[in-house]
Amino acid sequence: MSDTTPRLGLSLLVEGQSQKHITVNEALLSLEWYGLPTVKDRDLTAPPDDPVDGDAYLIAVGASGDWQGHGAEIALRVGGGWVYHAPVPGMLLYVEDENIHLKRGPSAWQVASL
């Protein structure tokens, strides 16, 4: 059996695991985001100067700084750091600064008509 869920990659508890609360808390934070997938912006290649916990961004390709190597992923600010989520096909995402919805296709985001 895998240590993660098959679709979202959420960490699962394993028998005899110490500090189970860490695994559970990480999964709850991920579920909170996936339950209301909203990002502030989709054009940034570097983290903003003043993010607060709960802020999320769709990272533009060619990212630098803390986001380097995470282009096209979603960055969620948690506990003063960044947690990254890979998009999955079919995912809907609301982009606040553009007031649009995106839908994840097999390999790219597309503007969704709802």
Order of helices and strands: HEEEEEEE
Q: Estimate the strand proportion.
A: 15-25%
* Sequence stretches where pLDDT stays below 50 over 5 or more residues: none
Distance from first to last alpha carbon? 38 Å
Could you tell me the number of beta strands? Answer: 7
Overall geometry: globular
Percent of residues in helices comes to 10-25%
Mean pLDDT: 86
Report Rg: 15 Å
Count of helix runs: 1
Number of domains as seen in the coordinates: 2
Sheet of most strands: 4 strands, mixed
* Class per helix and strand makeup: alpha+beta
Strand order across the largest sheet: 1-5-6-7
Care to describe what's here?
It is a single chain. This protein is α+β, with helices and mostly antiparallel strands and 114 residues long. Helices cover 14% and strands 24% of the residues. The protein has two domains: 1-35, no CATH class; 36-111, no CATH class. The protein is built from one helix and seven strands. Strands 1-5-6-7 form a four-stranded mixed sheet, with no helix packed on it.
Per-chain topology:
Elements: H1 20-35, E1 38-39, E2 56-58, E3 74-78, E4 81-85, E5 92-95, E6 100-104, E7 109-111
Parallel strand pairs: 1-5
Antiparallel strand pairs: 2-3, 3-4, 5-6, 6-7
Question: Brief overview, please?
Answer:
By secondary structure, the protein is of the alpha+beta class. It has one helix at residues 20-35, and strands at residues 38-39, 56-58, 74-78, 81-85, 92-95, 100-104, 109-111. The chain folds into two domains: 1-35, no CATH class; 36-111, no CATH class.
Task: Give keywords.
114 residues, alpha+beta, 2 domains, four-stranded mixed sheet, three-stranded antiparallel sheet, 7 strands
